[in-house]
Structures are given as structure tokens and as C-alpha cells.
């Protein structure tokens, strides 16, 4: 598979949540996903324990069942409000937020058409964990999942990190035969070829300086 040849800096600044520019009609090959997963498992983990599992879903019936859960969760999350006739806000951050909601709404509508879904999973459950335990567990899977998204971007694939289906994690576990009591699903990453390959850095008002302090909090 040919890669885009992005520099590391371009890759880090243009790997966006892709929803509207996904090619729903073009399948993603097993080989391409496997290639991305080889980079995924290079990520750091707590105590050098690689307990991670990545469940790739391409089966139409399973995707449809997950999409039903996702849409149910999306309706709960948005309170069933339609964003199509929302008034255009006057300031830029609010405009950007409305764009995100419209784009997320589009993904929810088309969720069953996503060519592949990747669920990063970790062993155990975090229900009673301390913050150190939760941070170690999540920290041992999230970097790998982000690596997957970066590797995908370099291969002209678009991804979006989603969590809405986790409102019904147990039902999703049943669909996918995941042992719910022993395994936590961390996300559902949607994957598809992108329509075009040009993506821009996100607007982050004030840049890093606005959210960085040195030596003390204030
Ligand atoms: C923890 C987390 C949960 C998210 N859940 C969802 C989701 O359920 N559905 C969705 O469409 N996008 C979801 N997103 C994507 C964000 O909306 C997206 O990253 C954000 O709007 C910034 O856009 P960008 O990634 O292009 O900079 C999630 C992202 C993260 C990191």
C-alpha cells in the first residue's frame, strides 16, 4: 500500500475526526488494517504489560447492530434534538461547535455504512479502580489506539474516535461475544477511505500556550 509521505509534524497536526469525508462505499482491506495494527502494538504500556486486544468489525450484520446501539446513544446524548435547523451562531467557536455536531449527527445517521470499526479493549474493568489504576489501564490502551489513527491517516484512511456506543457497552459485548465482566471496551474507532487526502490543522484558540503553565498551576 502506498503511503501519503506526510512528515511527522503534518501527521500529528492533520489527523482529524473524519466523518463527512468517509467513502462508505469503498471497503477497507484486511491487509491495510493489519498494517496499521502493527504500528498500534508499538505503543507504550504500563508495567510493559500488553494486555490490549483490538476487535475489528467488518461484518454487515454486526455493524448494523452496533449502529443501532450508537444511534440510540446518540439520541440520548442529544435529547433527540435535530441540528439541521439550528440557527447559525455568531461567533467562531460556536460555529465550529455546530459544525462538529452536524458532522457527528451525519456519522450517527450513517454509522452502519462505516466500512470498518475497531474497538480497542483492555483486560479487566475499571468500575472500582483508584485513579492510579484507571489512569494506568486507560494509559495502556489509548496511546496505541491513537497510533492506529495516525497510521491510518498516513494510509489515506479516515478515523473517528467514538464512545457513544459505550452507553450500551454490555449489549455491544453481547453482539461481539466479548466477555463483559473481564474486558473493557475503550472506544469504537470508525475507519474508511477518505474522500480526498488534504486535511488541515484544527483551530485551537491560543494554541498550547493558553493551556500550559510552568512549575506551578497558575
Ligand atoms: C474521548 C473521545 C470521545 C469521542 N466520542 C465521539 C463520539 O462518540 N462521536 C463522535 O462523532 N465523535 C467523538 N469524538 C471525536 C471528537 O468529537 C473530535 O475529536 C473533536 O470534535 C475534535 O475534532 P478533531 O479530532 O478533528 O480535532 C470523541 C473524541 C474523543 C477523544
Q: Can you offer a commentary on this structure?
A:
The structure is a single chain. This protein has 218 residues and is an alpha+beta fold. The chain has one domain: NADH Oxidase (3-Layer(aba) Sandwich), CATH 3.40.109. Helices cover 39% and strands 13% of the residues. The chain is built from seven helices and five strands. The chain has helices at 8-14, 30-40, 60-78, 92-109, 131-139, 142-154, 169-176, and strands at residues 53-57, 116-123, 157-162, 183-185, 188-193. Strands 1, 2, 3, 4 and 5 form a five-stranded antiparallel β-sheet that branches. Helix 2 crosses helix 6 (142-154) and helix 3 (60-78) packs antiparallel against helix 7. The longest helix has 19 residues, at 60-78. The protein is globular. The model has no long low-confidence stretch (mean pLDDT 94). The structure holds flavin mononucleotide (FMN). The site of flavin mononucleotide has 11 residues, from helix 4 and strand 3.
- Level-2 CATH architecture: 3-Layer(aba) Sandwich
Could you give a short account of the major beta sheet? Answer: 5 strands, antiparallel
Strand content: 5-15%
What binds here, in terms of ligands, is: flavin mononucleotide
- What is the residue-averaged pLDDT? 94
In short:
With 218 residues, this protein is α+β, with helices and mostly antiparallel strands. It is built from 7 helices and 5 strands, in the order H-H-E-H-H-E-H-H-E-H-E-E.
Any chance you could write out the topology, listing elements then pairs?
Layout lengths: L7 H7 L15 H11 L12 E5 L2 H19 L13 H18 L6 E8 L7 H9 L2 H13 L2 E6 L6 H8 L6 E3 L2 E6 L25
Antiparallel strand pairs: 1-2, 2-4, 2-5, 3-5
The site of flavin mononucleotide (FMN) has 11 residues, from helix 4 and strand 3.
